[in-house]
Amino acid sequence: MKKQIVALTAIAALSTGAAASASAADYSVKKGDTLWSISQNNNVTVEQIQEWNNLSSDLIYPAQTLKVSGEAQAASNDTYTVVKGDTLYKIAQAHGITVGELMSWNGLSSDLIFPGQEFSVAGQAAAPAVAQAAAPAQNSGQTQSTEGVQGTGGEAPSSDAVQEMTVTATAYTAYCAGCSGVTATGIDLRANPNQKVIAVDPNVIPLGSRVWVEGYGEAIAGDTGGAIKGNKIDLFIPSQQDALNYGVQTVDIKILD
């Protein structure tokens, strides 16, 4: 009985400490955390945390920053925080600046952006923000597919397209346990990390086609996957973290040939 009382006291102390450490408006996820445990420690519901952080699932990751309070955050007219669905083009247009200026002011080398990033929209560098990660999806072909956040826009090719459609896009990487990194059409993605390749349903997009993808650019339809059916594609991104952060998006594509 004495041992049980001591154990319960220790648990109570740990719970109290966890609640105190999680009392701030933002919370950094630690190993072993769940949305339920975080919600209990902050006297909120799981649904509230999901709503405040635009989470579509209950999967979270260590070092991910979550809002645990519904209080509005003060916003500066000189900075902008990326939300789901944003593109560099949309942000630039909304603030009367060019995409080039936005990229230059924020030290961007590509057009991939993620919810939670804070950008300067007035010519001064903004403090970097940790991008939210999200749930991994089903595997695609010989590579590892992931789901999570939001990419950006890009100008469509001027040439006429054979077909245009709107699809659901996820991203994958060539590195995972048991993966060869070689696509269904024989492209070695590990040897060619800069190659733009998408996994497709061959019944919808013929293998070998050139396809322009909003926010990704022109790619080769060079891979397939068990989870890629119908109007769904998987984009190859060499960095596993970038692939994880890309997430699930609805994008426009153009089949060029």
UniProtKB/TrEMBL annotation:
<dbReference type="Pfam" id="PF06725">
    <property type="entry name" value="3D"/>
</dbReference>
<feature type="compositionally biased region" description="Polar residues">
    <location>
        <begin position="139"/>
        <end position="149"/>
    </location>
</feature>
<feature type="domain" description="LysM">
    <location>
        <begin position="78"/>
        <end position="121"/>
    </location>
</feature>
<protein>
    <submittedName>
        <fullName>LysM peptidoglycan-binding domain-containing protein</fullName>
    </submittedName>
</protein>
<dbReference type="InterPro" id="IPR051933">
    <property type="entry name" value="Resuscitation_pf_RpfB"/>
</dbReference>
<dbReference type="Pfam" id="PF01476">
    <property type="entry name" value="LysM"/>
</dbReference>
<dbReference type="InterPro" id="IPR018392">
    <property type="entry name" value="LysM"/>
</dbReference>
<feature type="domain" description="LysM">
    <location>
        <begin position="25"/>
        <end position="68"/>
    </location>
</feature>
<dbReference type="InterPro" id="IPR010611">
    <property type="entry name" value="3D_dom"/>
</dbReference>
<dbReference type="InterPro" id="IPR036779">
    <property type="entry name" value="LysM_dom_sf"/>
</dbReference>
<feature type="region of interest" description="Disordered">
    <location>
        <begin position="133"/>
        <end position="160"/>
    </location>
</feature>
<keyword id="KW-0732">Signal</keyword>
<feature type="signal peptide">
    <location>
        <begin position="1"/>
        <end position="24"/>
    </location>
</feature>
<dbReference type="InterPro" id="IPR036908">
    <property type="entry name" value="RlpA-like_sf"/>
</dbReference>
